[in-house]
Amino acid sequence: MQIWFNPAAGLEAAIKSVSALEEDFRSDVRIADPRFGDFQANGILPYAKARKANPRALAVETLAKVQESGTLGGIQSEIAGPGFINFTLSAEYLFNWLVNFDSSEKLSAGMAKEGAGTVVVDFSSPNTAKEMHVGHIRSTVIGEAIARLLAQKGMKVIRDNHIGDWGTQFGMLIWAVKNEGYDLDHPGADAVQELQDLYGRGYAHYKSSDEAAALIREELVKLQDADAENMRIWTRITEISKQSFDRIYGRLGIDFDLTLGESFYRDRVERIYKELSECGLAVESDGALVVFHPEHKRFATQPFIVRKADGASNYASTDLATILYRVEELGATEIIYVVDSRQSDHFEQLFLTVEKWFAAKGYALPKLKHVSFGTVLGENGKPFKTKEGGTVKLRELLDEAVERSYAMVSEKSPDLDEAERRSIAEVVGLGSVRYADLSQNRSSDYVFSWDKMLSLEGNTAPYLLYAVARIHSIFRKANLKPGQNEAGASVFESPEELVLARKLLAFGPSMDGVFSDLRPHLLCNYLYELSGAFSSFYSANRVMVDEETVRARRLMLCSRTLAVLETGLHILGLKTLSRM
Questions:
Q1: Are 121 and 143 in contact (CB under 8 A)?
Q2: 32 and 12 share a domain?
């Protein structure tokens, strides 16, 4: 039986307590997303048909048992047609639900599940000695939103920034540092860009001749052999890079629990080679150690290279070592990789290999999920670039977002002092970049548009932040705090009150939809619809009326809307404002 209804566990508990019904019938109950005011049970007909029973009689019996349980409260119910059961939420039910969930804390607590396990969220993952660019924004903000969502669900979340800090490129970079006498202890103001330029010159030298390539390979071998000077250079490069990354993460309000790059696992890969070979999974092929998956249409002949022909490790070997470390040392029951869709083949091969390897060794297999995403495009439909055709640096993108927001805030609120306008602009600008990304279906590419993302109309951060600030202003003008003066509130009456109340009750099931497939844009859509419902309510219903019971219930609706909006935006990683 499918019941298109959620609001509280009352109905679900009532259905499951109907002892006269067979277990297989009761276990088919599913709570779904309420999109309208009336919901329908539509599983009785196929159940009755399979057993040659009268569906309407079965519906009457089911409804009678549910009503006997006494847990329906203010839910109205009736039999319709050949055996449908219609449930309608009464104004009293809506009112009582909103009385109970009167804060962000209670809303959050209602989403948590005990014993949910430990999940490692692997996201952002820039390469050291390179500037973070616009391509990093998706992994970074989607990953953080997912981490916050999982934490709301009661999971122990470990954020891991698996940076690229090892490999062939460091031979080129170390050669260039030595060749040019670059002072790593006193770098310039734009140190990471200088390192990136050094790498470019090292790469050009590597390609210039066989002799040059041999010299650079020697530097790499010395690094791999832990040569003191090369290790000092590598360590300093990593430190400079992390300082640059942390400035961006600080602005975005992101704190990683771990930053364990590829270098951390370089001494752990030998175990991987040994165990995969012992299990019969890995075989030698043209000097490399590879894994084939004969049951797979493509991977039967497309090798998963876990050790290169020259004996060096690669992404596959360090990723395998990383999973083992996360299970054995961190206790991970689930690992989520927030990486663009171009890496789908890699993760599919990785997961297949881990499943077979762990089964052979008797290791506890965690859930493995690749949360993929599309590309950020310019308005020309091609990958987003600068006007000169270069890569857009993330720090410069964030700076521009804040400056554009400052101009907008100064135009809209010139009476505010500059310090306050700057503070608001920081929240609006960074939130706009973040929300513009999260509001898109992550599987799709999306077009980056300044005008759209900073608009005060439509599904944008400024629109939602303004909705939050407007509700704060209602309480400020009334000299009240949200949640105050609700005693004696009467039950909702106007159409706009009822629509808003129903939309507020949809927060829980909407979050279930976001959680089930880790798609933040579904939460964005819900918050936008909620803001629209509040706007319609506020336009048609004056809040500070003389009648105390009416004023109290409308203040309640304002308070609950504020709690849900702030809870949802904080899950997405956005800060909110009390004035704008």
A1: yes
A2: yes
CA 77 to chain centre: 38
Which DSSP category does 305 fall into? E
Residue of 264, 311, 312, 268 whose CA lies nearest to 168: 312
Are residues 62 and 133 located together in one domain of the fold?
A: no
404 in any annotated domain: yes
| Strand duo 118-122 + 334-338: pairing | parallel
Helices (H) and strands (E) counted in the chain, each on its own, are 22, 14
366-418 pLDDT, tens per residue?
Answer: 999 999 999 999 988 888 888 777 889 999 999 999 999 999 999 999 999 99
Considering the domain architecture, whether residues 540 and 437 belong to the same structural domain is answered as: yes
> How do 84-89 and 38-41 pair as beta strands?
antiparallel
Residue 126 in any domain: the answer is yes
* 467 in any annotated domain: yes
Looking at the whole model, is its pTM more than 0.85?
A: yes
Q: How confident is the model at residue 73 (pLDDT cuts 50, 70, 90)?
A: low
Which of 77-81, 313-317, 374-378, 532-536 bottoms out in mean pLDDT, i.e. has the lowest?
77-81
Q: Which residue range(s) make up the domain with 145? A: 118-164+261-371
Rounded to whole angstroms, the Cα distance separating 117 from 112 reads 12
Query: E strands within 52-163?
Result: 75-80, 84-89, 118-122, 156-160
What residues contact 112, with CB distance under 8 A and at least 6 apart?
152, 153, 154
Q: Which CATH number does the domain housing residue 46 bear?
A: 3.30.1360.70
